[in-house]
Amino acid sequence: MFHYKSISQVVKLFAMSSPNITYISNFYSQEESIEMFTKLSKCPFKQPINKVWGKSYRPLRKSCSYGDMDLEYEYSGHCELALPWNRTMFKIKSDVEKKTGFEYNFVLLNFYESGHAKIGAHKDDEPSLDQTVDIATLSFGVCRDTIFSKKGCKSVRQALEAGSLLLMHDQKEWTHAIPPQPCVKEARISLTFRRVWSSLQQILDEMERDYSIPPCKRLRRE
């Protein structure tokens, strides 16, 4: 039988085989969650056109986004142009920032009409994302599961309850997905808060990378 040399060795092994996340089940109360879901249901959701491996498709889920002025976020060949913050979204953003200690300038909303809507395994590692800021996901409506996977490790399934907050820290080695759950007949709305670099900052980063110019101080929106 193998014996660990130290407790630190056990902790290190556990960290390697578990996704680096924090889950808060009751970030919003049941009453607040119902109220939020009703308000968010009126958002201008549209079905995006995504592109994977050169092929375009329309997922069953719908999406929309809010953020700072003229901010764009591109993923899976689809570009989301952020709508300006409204009172509801700004209130939610402030609540999340107060809890996490991070400042967010963009939120992506996904509307899952039923358990047939899903998201395949992926990493939120787009170049436009500030990887030093945790991605924060709020869930409203019916409870759905997310699955974290890593090569060589057992997958981890986490239920996302209404009113819950999920923080994804360093996820370089883990993918996450919302699998189909045909038995689920009700809707879910998720809000994923991120820190997105402006177009100017992305250009500076590309220049730094392509021409090896001295590192530029990152720009922050005031």
UniProtKB/TrEMBL annotation:
Start and end residues of each Fe2OG dioxygenase domain: 103-197
Keyword match Transferase: yes
The domain of life is Eukaryota
Q: Which PANTHER family match?
A: ALPHA-KETOGLUTARATE-DEPENDENT DIOXYGENASE ALKB HOMOLOG 2, DNA OXIDATIVE DEMETHYLASE ALKBH2
Supply the gene name.
ALKBH2_135
- Any idea which positions bind 2-oxoglutarate? 110, 112, 122, 176, 188, 192, 194
Which sites bind substrate?
73-75, 125
Cofactors per UniProt? Fe(2+)
Kindly list the GO molecular function terms attached to this UniProt entry.
broad specificity oxidative DNA demethylase activity; cytosine C-5 DNA demethylase activity; ferrous iron binding; methyltransferase activity
Instruction: Output this protein's name.
Output: DNA oxidative demethylase ALKBH2
